[in-house]
Each structure stands twice: as structure tokens, then as C-alpha cells.
What we know:
The structure is a single chain. The protein is elongated. It has a 3-stranded parallel sheet, covered by helices on one side. It is 56% helix and 8% strand. The longest helix has 38 residues, at 93-130. By secondary structure, the protein is mainly alpha-helical.
Amino acid sequence: xxxxxxxxxxxxxxxxxxxxxxxxxxxxxxxxxxxxxxxxxxxxxxxxxxxxxxxxxxxxxxxxxxxxxxxxxxxxxxxxxxxxxxxxxxxxxxxxxxxxxxxxxxxxxxxxxxxxxxxxxxxxxxxxxxx
Length: 131
């Protein structure tokens, strides 16, 4: 079941707006106007963290499950949803800010590692050309 159809089928009675896919910038701008997010896709999860929005994740693929498991984000498997239960499962804004900071630090570490690797490779290439 694709996520737009899923949302229209199960979430319309909860007064939740469903938006189509847009460009990354337009999507991030749209998410910035939200109070909170229900995410099914990897990038909606990442953009919600960047925008520091309380969120809840409906896991349906491995990528989202890996993020929710790694950062202990409240989520529910798409195959185990019970909509008769109260929907009070959004992560706090403080936790989202903490996750954003951890992701930012890891990204900075990865970029530093990439810079170091390319610098070493460049030096090796220059040395080999001088020979």
C-alpha cells in the first residue's frame, strides 16, 4: 500500500493533512510550517528532524526502521497499527533536537573522514606523477 493511499485511507478521520511529494527545499519549507509530523518515508523523517518537529514514524521499510531503532524514536510497524488506541505517541521536541545534534556531529565526522581520505589519495597521486 503506497503511503499517500495509506494516509487517505486511515488518517483522514483524524484531521491530518496529507501532502504530495515536492522538491527537497519546498518540502522542508512546508515541514517548517507544521506543528508535528507523522512520517512513513526516510526523507520525511530526516526533514522532520532537521526542522525540529515532534514526530511519529510508521515503519514500513528497513531505512526508517534503522533510524528509529538507532535513535530510539517512537514508531509502529505498519502491519501492527491499531487506530482505536489513542494517538499520543509523538517524540518530544527536546529529543528531536538531541537527535539532530547527534546526526549533525556524525555528518561532520563523515565529511572530515572523506576530506582526509581524498587528501591522502591526492598526495599519493601527486607523488606517483612526480616519479
